[in-house]
């Protein structure tokens, strides 16, 4: 059985000529014919070369792996019973699903509070993030959850100014922070400023703390989409040269006269801007944490990706030793930006395996009496059942679910519907619910009541879209938890799950469905 789709994908705008007859290993048409124009990835690479490494079209898409992993979260099922309730009185009139408490508190002083266990872990300098930031930031603030400003935002901003190699003023980062903080309600949620190698050199986090009042910063080791630094495409020569001057790796060299001439005559239309890979050492990590604390950071997070087990062990060990407030672990296959397509499909440890190792390592620290930080897991989560499974599988250590592509999708759809309403161009699929924002968005009445007419009418519909999506996730998660008789997140355990295959049971350590409750069954039946 092949888990990968090779040589053709909507992500690279390629396909096979013989779609029903494809070699499973190479992905080539069974009969490759002389005279074919080159619709497959090999063919397109013959004339566009390295451009075909990346998903397309850049700037208007998010992307994630289409690899069918041998084990995923669908191989686990949620288990419920008919006895009792935890976190509420075992009374049918009181133990109703709206009573489930989804609030999360974490951090060294328990001072971070989220209304829902959701974090958007790193939306950076890509166009898809920048163009939808208004909806993402305001929607997150209204929902009382977390949002991370990802890498390279300041470095990519043409209006950023620097002195002695350090940032002294920005436009984009200011806007991103302010859109969240201006709409934050009762201190719920958090805006997080992340930094990679280039961001750290430019002093981004110190600037965010001292000038913008940021309280939460994040060190970035990587993500589940790729094992190299962040990258974007640049269609403007002057911007490519600006980024080169700011210290980024830009390909091809935008200061080379031959390259400039080729770009101007249209031989290629995009430059690539790449970030450097980090070089982690415990000494360097400890030093950076101390620097950020001295700069005034109230909370420090760490995000790592789908690296080998040794790197995961280092991440949780360092997070424990240096009292990191949140560790985010992102499984393979994710992505929101321009990660190389084959890399996104074929690199890294998949979510179920990675999160199972994470639980094992956290428990080892816990059993020794060592500090275990709050943990967030990410890796393609989109709906409440997946959230439940990841929270239960990682209990009691996993506090949050990281999601990025689906919140972006919700914000984009909300934005698009708002424009269609203004243009009197709603498709029939949506128009059946009405022709106004109040009719189409099911949460509009609640938001209007809470905010008042003036503030509600000024809301971007992208924010309403994200808020409404989160409202669905919250209600769905409450229903699942009530069915498992768990009325607050702290009561969830691995016992709320069972595995549907022996292989998933071996990986996770969660019982196979036919082995579940054997002891209790024997007690009942004799």
Topology:
Elements: H1 41-48, E1 76-78, E2 104-106, E3 112-114, E4 118-123, H2 127-130, H3 133-143, E5 146-149, H4 153-156, E6 161-163, E7 166-169, H5 172-181, E8 190-195, H6 197-201, H7 204-212, E9 216-220, E10 231-234, H8 237-245, E11 249-251, H9 257-264, E12 271-274, H10 282-295, E13 299-304, H11 309-321, E14 326-330, H12 341-346, H13 351-367, E15 374-378, H14 384-393, E16 398-402, H15 405-422, H16 428-431, H17 437-440, H18 444-451, H19 453-457, H20 461-483, E17 497-499, H21 502-508, H22 518-525
Helix pairs in contact: 3-5, 3-20, 11-13, 14-20, 15-20
Can you put this structure into words, describing what you see?
The strands form five sheets. This protein has an eight-stranded parallel barrel with strand order 4-5-8-9-13-14-15-16, surrounded by seven helices. Helix content is 39%, strand content 14%. The chain has 526 residues and is of the alpha/beta class. β2 (104-106) and β3 (112-114) form a beta hairpin. The chain is built from 22 helices and 17 strands. The protein is globular and about 85 Å long. α3 (133-143) packs across α20 and α14 packs across α20. It has helices at residues 41-48, 127-130, 133-143, 153-156, 172-181, 197-201, 204-212, 237-245, 257-264, 282-295, 309-321, 341-346, 351-367, 384-393, 405-422, 428-431, 437-440, 444-451, 453-457, 461-483, 502-508, 518-525, and strands spanning 76-78, 104-106, 112-114, 118-123, 146-149, 161-163, 166-169, 190-195, 216-220, 231-234, 249-251, 271-274, 299-304, 326-330, 374-378, 398-402, 497-499. It folds into two domains: 10-53, no CATH class; 72-224 and 297-526, Aldolase class I (TIM Barrel, Alpha-Beta Barrel), CATH 3.20.20.
